[in-house]
Amino acid sequence: MKKVLAALGLLLLLQAPVKAQFLAGLFINRYDRHQMHHGKWKYRDLSNHRQLVCVGWFDHGKQVKEWKYYHPNGKLRFVENYSWVGDMRVVDVIYFHENGQVSNKGIAMVQNAEGKMHYYWEGDWNYFEEDGTFIKTVTYNNGQPIKSTYANGRVEIEQTKLPYREVAIPIH
To answer: Fewer CB within 10 Å, N- or C-terminus of the chain?
Structure first.
């Protein structure tokens, strides 16, 4: 009897990785009862189903946790880590050069205003060369660069770009 139980136990252990892989596939790209994305999601290129575009997590329709985006060659393109402040998403973003070194990193904000998504960079963003050497820090306000501080200490104040607006000028 002990030999039979041991053989069954060994058989179950050998099949465990196969079962785990099968079960893992059941819990990716799922919806909650309100048909909202929920749990881990993987997106693949429509023309090449082997090409992974991004992987991330949803919590009842909201992006949460870590999201990874990939270049067509399969290398990591950028990573986003989501947190929420009310209805506003705060996203910690890191972009990578093709060689895997950090290209730039900072904070982005995502707001839903009047049914439109507004994604913009906010605060200090650090930029790096392909060898990892620091280049500069650019400070953003609502997506507009306002100041650049270079590695040598030089500071440049950016000119603010006012949105185009038609103005009626009375003619006498």
So the answer is: C
